[in-house]
Structure formats: C-alpha cells, structure tokens
Amino acid sequence: MKSISSPTIGSDESKCLHCAIRDSALFAGLEELGFRHIHQPIETVILAPRAFLYRAQERRDTLFTLRSGAMKLVQYLPDGSQRIVRLLRDSDALGLETLVRQPYQHDAIALTDCDICAIPADVIDELGREQPRIYQALMARWQQALNEADAWLTQFTTGTARQRVARLLLRLACPASDHRLRLFGREDMAAMVGLTTETVSRTIAELRRQGLLRDQDAHLQNCDQETLRRIADGEE
Amino acid sequence: MKSISSPTIGSDESKCLHCAIRDSALFAGLEELGFRHIHQPIETVILAPRAFLYRAQERRDTLFTLRSGAMKLVQYLPDGSQRIVRLLRDSDALGLETLVRQPYQHDAIALTDCDICAIPADVIDELGREQPRIYQALMARWQQALNEADAWLTQFTTGTARQRVARLLLRLACPASDHRLRLFGREDMAAMVGLTTETVSRTIAELRRQGLLRDQDAHLQNCDQETLRRIADGEE
DNA sequence: CGATATTTTGAACTCGATCAATTGTGGTGG
DNA sequence: CCACCACAATTGATCGAGTTCAAAATATCG
Question: At B212, which CATH number?
Fold first, then answer.
C-alpha cells in the first residue's frame, strides 16, 4: 500500500468549456443548455501519478472525463495479483457504470499527471431529459470502452512475449504520431500484457539491442514502428 | 471453413411477447407501446450449432436478443488464430454496436441450438423517441457486456491451466444451479481460456480422476462446485 | 551523498506447447 | 444393424518460452 497524494479539486468553468470543444460528442448538449442551467457543480480534479481517482466497489455517482494524462483501470484476483484491464487517455470517459447505478468496477489510478473533469450523474440525467440525443453520445462511449476491452483481450493475452510487448509499445506510441514513445514502469507494463516484470525488461532490452528503440530521455524513446508492427503480427 | 446451415427466419409475435416478460428490462417500453405501432418486423431466428448469426465488419442494423441457447463472440488475430471474447446465454443482447452505427465487431456463432429475437435498429430509435427511459435499459445492457468482458479477461488469462479450467467449468455450471454442467467442444473451451485443446483435455481428465466431475450423459457432467471454487482461487 | 526502490541480468526449473500416435464417437450408406 | 469413415478427444514424450529466485546495477529522492 502506497500513500495516496490527495487529489486537488476545484471548480473551473472555463476549462470545462474548453473540454466541451475538444470532446464535442459528449458535451454538445451541454453547450446548448449552457452551464448556468445546471445546478450541480462540474468540478476539476488534478491527480499526481499513483493517485487513485476512485476505488472498486465505491459509490460516488460521478462520471469522469480525462482531459489530459493517462490512467489505468485495475482489477484484482482472489490471490491478490492484479491485472490492468484498460488504459485511458485524453478525452476518454471513466466511471460510466455510475450512470446505471452500479458501484465502480475497478480501481482507477493515475499513471501520469492527470487533469480530470468530474460530472455528477444527476447532471447527465437532467441533461438526458431535455436533450435525449446525448444518449447517442453516451452509447458511443460505452461501445468505445467495449471495443477497447476486446482489443485488449486479443492483443495482450495471445502470442509470444515479444509480440505482446511490441503491441504494447505500438499502442503507447500511437497518440504521438511522430515516433516518440513514453514508457511506463515495468511493473505496470507487465500487468498490462500478462507477463512478469523480468520478462518485459528482458524483451525491451533485446529490442533496444536490435536498435528498434533508442533512448531520448529517461522514459522517452524513439521507436521503429514499421518493424515493431511486423513483430506484433508474428512475422520474424 | 465449415458449411453454414442457413438460419430459419420467421415472424412470431407471441414469442416476442413471451420474450418481453422474461426480459422486462429491455422491453418494458415495447409492451406499453404495443407491437402494432411498430412498423418494422421483429423476427425470430433459429440457429443450429456452428451457424453464424453475423460476421465481423458486416452491417445489418439489427439488434439481437438470445431467447435461449448459447453463442460465442469470436475475434481473429492477424496470424489467423482465434480467441473467444465472450459467451452469451439466455436473454443476453448481441450486436448492440449497431445502435451506434458501427459494423459488428465479432463473428457471432451458435454453440447450441439457439432461439433469437432480431430487432431492427430503427425500432429502437423510434422507441427511444417516445420512451426515452429505454436508454437506461440499453445502457445497463452495455455495462453488463463490459462487466462480462472485464471478468473474462481477469478470469481466463491469469493463473494456471487448472485454475482457468476450473473457473470456466464454474461459469458453465452457474445457470443450472443444481450441479449439472454442459461441456462444449474442447476446441471452443481452449479458445475461451487461452490454452491448447490438449491441455484442456488433460486438465479435465485429471479433474475427472479426482472425482470432481462425473459423467451423466454424453456432454453432461455432475461437478463438485465447492472444491472447484477452491481450485479456481488458487488454493490447492 | 547515502538509502530505498526499480530495473537489469543470470541460472535453474516448470508448466504448458508441440508433435505424434491412439482411442473414441457419431453419422452415413450398404 | 453393422461396417466404415471422418472427426474429436485422449494420451504420451519431448521441447522451449517464460517463470522463479537471487544477485548486481542503476535510478530516484530526500
């Protein structure tokens, strides 16, 4: 158990407006209604790495949008081992389950500094009554989560260690379309691909030796996406 | 590639009414509106084992409810190997993605004889306009699928072969709360837990030797759920 | 700069994969 | 009804990728 850096909470409309622009799918309705008609506060949460946004089984009736940063959703097994079930990034939604009155299903933990938008479930309900078409957007979010979950399963539970790590690197690289790549701790990476930290370490070391990864900074790398993709698909 | 037994299609209101009772969450709205106000037909589909309900990438704008039987959702990897991503049973929904205008994301294949309810996406849209609270039910379905996907990941991609098979058997046993258990083909079971057919076969053989499974019929078994659960959790 | 945590590397071992051969099970037509 | 065939399940023997346990090297932070 690590100590938890307490989250910074504040209300900040201007940021949420900005959020609304980038994330027009979910907040198109919000813009039209205008924030003044909403009587519950939409808050901003700032998290440091390793901080929890929420924990499994908790009930807080709040829906979140990740404005910037990266988070992991973790599930635990009876034997205590953990498995990372999903990786969330810019403009992904967290805690959708609260909209169907379920407690949170995972621990949500920050991997980097995170800037998060916290929306009370009641606000969404309210909004849904006046603007039913936001349900279309919400369903799209759910489907996105489901696609992610399925992709996660097929990509990170099949094939050799080499393949899985290559796939993970590609996924981590993809947001920055230039070949930069931010790595996470080995333990996290291991929990994502279902391997041990040692195996992940060895595999990455080998990729480096082959010149497919080149250090740029402490946790920043340049990568050869072409050949990584070939490795991911089992050729070579 | 196997030959496909062509699905039997028919329109049958009485069965759908029956369906509405059992599956009140999704069709509560339908009951109120009455079927006569729906201008698109709700059809019944009968599938034999190994038959496809739909294929990945296909677009048919139809949502399905599994009235009885068992189906698998399959995803394929670039190297051609397949992985079963979810198992669907009585009153589960299939093809939700069609409601957000996405093509189907998996191959949906019958494992047993199946009785299926096919609802055009337009009907849901129509319904949503007059009866917005059905969205609550739809979101619940989505969340259910997501919970299933996450559970699938943590249960069937971690632990020893023994544990995984035990967990699978428990899941297959759970609908019939008495200790009966219907097994599927080894190949399917292997694709569910991410092992080879040989390993699954060996593991089941061993469980039988230990008296935790006892044959009753060709594919029917009696099982000792208590000790299976202990194995699943890694004790012993 | 020392102390703790994380990563890397090494060596032995193990579980499940793989390859191959045998047995069992429907299903079909004679 | 049985003989036959194609296919699924079982069993055996071997092999190897990844785990495990342990130690060294490196990074992180007060």
Answer: 1.10.10.10
Residues A129 and A169 in one domain: no
Give whole-number Cα distances, A23 to A10, A167, A197, A213, in Å.
Answer: 20, 27, 36, 33
Residue B2 has pLDDT above 50, yes or no: no
Q: What pTM does this model have? A: 0.89
**φ and ψ at A48, to 5 degrees?**
-90, 160
Give pLDDT tens digits for A117-166: 898 999 888 888 887 888 988 999 999 999 999 999 999 999 999 999 99
pLDDT of residue A208: 95
Res. A42 pLDDT band, cuts 50 70 90: confident
Q: Look at residue B81 in the predicted model and tell me its pLDDT.
A: 82
Chain A span 175-204 residues with beta carbon within 7 Å of strand C: 185-187, 197-198, 201-202, 204
A41 touches chain B (CB under 8 A): no
A104 and A168 share one domain: no
With a CB cutoff of 8 Å and minimum separation 6, the contacts of B66 are B88, B89, B90, B91, B92, B93, B94, B114, B115, B116, B117
Name the nearest CA neighbour of B187 among B50, B69, B5: B50
Same domain, B187 and B77: no
Domain count within chain B = 2
Q: Tell me, what amino acid is at B46? A: I
Same domain, B121 and B165: no
Same domain, A105 and A23: yes
End position of a domain, from candidates A91, A115, A133: A133
B208 assigned to some structural domain: yes
- Helix pair angle (B186-193, B161-173), 10° resolution: 110
Q: In strand C, which positions have an atom below 7 A from any protein CB?
A: 6-11, 15-20, 25-26
Q: Which domain holds residue B29?
A: 8-133
Across the interface, which of A77, A139, A147 has its CB nearest the CB of B99?
Answer: A139
Sorted by sequence, the CB contacts under 8 Å of residue B12 that are 6+ apart come out as B43, B44
Final residue belonging to a domain, choices A133, A151, A179:
A133
Per-residue pLDDT, averaged over B66-80, amounts to: 90
Instruction: Please report whether residue B1 resides in a domain.
Output: no
Q: What is the pLDDT of residues B213-228, one digit of tens each?
A: 988 777 777 889 999 9
* Contact (CB<8Å) B100/A154: no
Residues near strand D (C-beta below 7 A) are A 160-162, 194-196, 198-199, 202, 218-219; B 185-187, 197-198, 200-202, 204-205
